[in-house]
Amino acid sequence: MPETNPAPAHKTTPFWWEAAPVRPLPEKSLPATVDVAIIGAGYTGLSAGLHLARAGRSVVCLDKMNPGEGASSRNGGITSGNIRLDHATLVRRFGEPRAMAIEAEGKKAREFLYHLLATENIACDFSLSGRFSGALGPDDYESLARTAEKLEKKLGIEAYAVPQSEQRNYLGTDFYRGGSVRMDIGGLQPAKFHAELLRVALAAGVQVRSGAAVTSVEKVGSGYQVTTEAGRISARQVLACTNGYTDNSDRWLRRRMVPIRSRIIATEELPEGLMATLMPKLMMCSETRNLGFYYRPSPDNKRILFGGRDGSTSGEPIEPTLHLKRNLIEIFPELKDVTLTHSWFGHVAMHRDMIPRIFERDGVVYATGFCGSGVVWAPWIGTQAARKLLGDKDMEPSAFDFRPPSAVPFYTGKPWFMPGVMAWYRHLDRKLMRRAGR
Ligand SMILES: Cc1cc2nc3c(=O)[nH]c(=O)nc-3n(C[C@H](O)[C@H](O)[C@H](O)COP(=O)(O)OP(=O)(O)OC[C@H]3O[C@@H](n4cnc5c(N)ncnc54)[C@H](O)[C@@H]3O)c2cc1C
C-alpha cells in the first residue's frame, strides 16, 4: 500500500508570514497602455519597477499570485550574494575579465542593498550580524581560510578563519572542524523586506496587480501586446522577472530555467539561555557541503530557522522536513526533542551555468537565475535591467548582462535529471566526508 503522510503538526506556510502575511492587493483594472510591463512582482520586478518609475516611466508589475508569494517572502533572508562557481570555473567558462567582474559586482550589489534599506527606511529587522561557514574537514577549512584572506586583501571585506579550538565562540557545536567568518553578510526578515519594497514601489507610482497571470507576450509594431488572465496591455517594453516561478507561458525561458525546491524548518521558541549557547554571536550560518545547510536565528533570537535542498518535486511529503530536522539535531544534539512550528518550501531557479543574468530575446529583457541567492542579487540585477531598458548611457555595463543561458537538453519543465544531479552531489559530499576522515 502506498505510504501516506499523516497531517503534519507544523504549519506549511512560511514562519515569516506570521509577522508579514502576503495579501492580494485591492482590485483595480489593468492600465490599457504602459511604457514598461514587468512580469513578476518579487524583489526583482519591484526593484526594476521602482527605478523605472523614478525615471519617469509608467510601469505595471503583473503577478499571477499575490505579490511576494514566490521566493521573495519564503527565503532565509541571508544577504549572502553567493556565486556558486569558484574562481577557476568562472575563468574557464567566461574568461578572466568577466570572472573578475562577476566577483567584484557581489560587493557592489550587497552595498546597494544596504543603502536601499537605509535610504528608503525599509523596516525588515535587518542586522549585519556576519556569517559563519563551517568546514567538514581540514581541506575545506584551508580553502575557507584562503578565501577569507583573499576577500580581505582584494575586496577589503572583513573576513577571517576560525580554528576549531575557537569555534564554540561562534557556534555551539563540535560538528564542524573550524570555519570562517565574513562580516559583510547579515540577515533580514524576507517577507517584511518584500512588503516594504512594495510600499516604496507603490509610493513611487509603480502599478502592481496580483492575480494577473501573463499568458503571452506578442510583438506588435514597435511594442508588445501583453495578454494576462485579467486583460490585455500594450507596452513599449517588457521585462520578465519570473525566476523559479516561470511557467509554460514562456516555453523558451522554461527550457533554460530549472526550478528547484528549497525548504526551511522553524523550531519552537527555545528555552531561555539555549540560543546563547548554540548561536552566541547570532550570526547567519552556512557550510561547505554541496548539499549543505543554511541556518540562522529568528529576528527575535528565540528560534532557529534551518534550510536546505528539499529533493521533492510535488505534493507536501514529510521526508524533506524530517531530513532537515535530523541534520539540525546532528549539528545541535541539544535540540533532539525540539518541536517544529513551521516547514515550508519555495522554488529557487538555476540556469545551466549557475550564473544569474540579464539578457534579451526579441527585445524582451529578462532578469533571472539567482540560484538560491537572490536577496542581494535580485534587487541589484532588477535595477541593472531597468537601467538597460532606459538605455542609460552612463551605465557601467553589469558583468551579469550577457548572452542568454543555454537550454537544458531534453528539458521542457519536468526536471527528469534531478535525481541524477542529487546523487552526484551526495557522492561528492561522501568523498568530502571520507577525505575529512569522517
Ligand atoms: C526556501 C528558500 C530559501 C532561500 N534563502 C535565501 C537566502 O537565505 N538568501 C538569498 O540570498 N536567497 C535566498 N533564496 C532565493 C531568493 O528568495 C530568490 O532568489 C529571490 O526571492 C528571487 O526574487 P525574484 O523576484 O526574482 O523571484 P520571486 O520572488 O520568486 O518572484 C517571481 C514572481 O513571478 C511571478 N510569475 C511567474 N510567472 C508569471 C506569469 N506568467 N505571470 C505573472 N506572474 C508570474 C510569480 O508569481 C512570482 O511572484 C531562497 C529561496 C527559497 C525558495
From TrEMBL:
<dbReference type="GO" id="GO:0005737">
    <property type="term" value="C:cytoplasm"/>
</dbReference>
<keyword id="KW-0560">Oxidoreductase</keyword>
<feature type="domain" description="FAD dependent oxidoreductase">
    <location>
        <begin position="35"/>
        <end position="386"/>
    </location>
</feature>
<dbReference type="GO" id="GO:0016491">
    <property type="term" value="F:oxidoreductase activity"/>
</dbReference>
<dbReference type="InterPro" id="IPR036188">
    <property type="entry name" value="FAD/NAD-bd_sf"/>
</dbReference>
<protein>
    <submittedName>
        <fullName>Oxidoreductase</fullName>
    </submittedName>
</protein>
<dbReference type="Pfam" id="PF01266">
    <property type="entry name" value="DAO"/>
</dbReference>
<dbReference type="InterPro" id="IPR006076">
    <property type="entry name" value="FAD-dep_OxRdtase"/>
</dbReference>
